Amino acid sequence: MPEVYLYDTTLRDGAAREGVSFSMDDKLRILKHLDDFGIHYVEGGYPGSNPKDMDFFRAADGMELKNTRLVAFGSTRKALVSTSRDREMKALVESGAKVACIVGKAWDFHVETALRISLDENLFMIGESVKYLKSKGLEVLFDAEHFFDGYKENASYTMKTVEAAAENGVDWIVLCDTNGGTLPHEITAMVKEVTAKLTGPVAIHAHNDSECAVANSLAAVREGARMVQGTINGYGERCGNANLCSVIPDLVLKMNIDCMSRENLSMLTDTAHFVSEIANLTPDSHQPFVGLSAFAHKGGIHASAVGKETRTYEHVRPELVGNIQRIVVSELSGKSTVILKAGEMGIDLEGKKGKLSEIVEKIKDLERIGYQFEAADGSFEILLRKEIGTYNKFFKLESFRVIMEKREDGKVVTEATVKIHVGGERLIETAEGNGPVNALDKALRLAIEKSYPALEDIKLTDYKVRVLGEKKGTAAVTRVLIETSDGEKEWGTIGVHENIIEASWQALQDSIEFGLEHKRQQPHEQVPGDEE
Q1: 207 and 329 both lie in a single domain
Q2: How many CB atoms are closer than 10 A to CB 412?
Q3: Cβ distance 93 to 67 under 8 Å?
Q4: What percent of the chain has a predicted confidence (pLDDT) above 90?
Q5: How confident is the model over 109-155, as pLDDT tens digits?
Q6: Nearest partner of 493 among 483, 478, 504, 503, judged by Cα
Q7: At 457, which CATH number?
Q8: From CA 171, how far away is CA 337, in angstroms rounded?
Q9: Cα–Cα nearest to 219, from 239, 248, 196, 190
């Protein structure tokens, strides 16, 4: 039995985030992943509110869950309606879930202003709803909505709401900071008082409107809360919910609280990215524990220190949460940073220290004019290989030309022609595209695909442009970043030039050559110009 239970509401509260909409299949996939991850309770949705959620519960009924208890969410019965005739009460029972979580008002202000019923009727609604669901054999949680706001203004009445649930056999009292405005010291004081008055287990449900949801959850646990409710990546309405991707490692690694095995904790980063992918949201690279930058070191002093001992600048070992350490190369880099970053790429610079000063100075010179290698590992590796003489030139550009034509009917057509040397052969190809970069990419591929079949797997996935020195207007320098994938590995490349097409070509060429290098494709023979 864990010291603290983990309750995930990504599929219900998390889905309230703007821009997020889970299909039934999405929800089933996330449920399965959270079960494998080791979450104790997963709130699947609100069966009384829409047919999609009821269909989800019916589909989930056939799943074998190893660790998770599926929870159906609903509200207390309506005012002046018997529980046996209330539609939401029936939906909770008919969902097939063995656990129900019902929300009720714990703040007298809300009872009188939002519900517009008597304070006594609200207590009857809470107590009778819990009693009814317990009579159906369900485990029941009572979400005391606005608990902390209510406790501040009328502690006596707020306590009556949770006592009404407790007296009718509720299994969990959930203290909700629904507006997310309570601070950790307030949570500490109030949870301490409440746990002393209640005999049953207490849970915390915090929202993040004051950027305190994780801190409030941990404070509640310290004062006796035995369950934390939250969402993966902190998804939720407005500013989101308590982020379980921070709460869980804090509980396990910082507070030594048994809520998840160390083995399962190593799935944390994978789980965070899996859910963001299903939600169609870009992962926050700066998110603690699971973000791409969570264990990235850019400053030369930092990188040098972690190369000797990771504890110098890392509060936990990244592998404990399934993440990795990254060394980021930038104008702040020193020799140690470059050596460590090259080592990540399988390039040994220890025996080439004479080149190090030149490489570091070249990086700083390039970043001075707009390059940014921290977002372009592919271009950085190519730069290193060129400097130490291990670079494979896969093709030689003779020239390219891009033509854009707008026709009378409004249609815009872009055409690119490239003249390329591959394996001693001069090739010319032309292609149309929806823009100059797309046309160039197509023309280059047509020219070299027969020589390099692995090119078929290499796909451009993202293209970003940033104008540097905006005050120069159309004469400003442009930075182009391209993201590329071969289905297994992803890499970034960069180009910088006053001409956006040339900047794009630089990034495009690096992206293709990096991919071919890692596919172990070699030029058939020396490309003209290599001897120079």
Answers
A1: no
A2: 10
A3: no
A4: 70
A5: 999 999 999 999 999 999 999 999 999 999 999 999 999 999 999 99
A6: 483
A7: 3.30.160.270
A8: 54
A9: 190
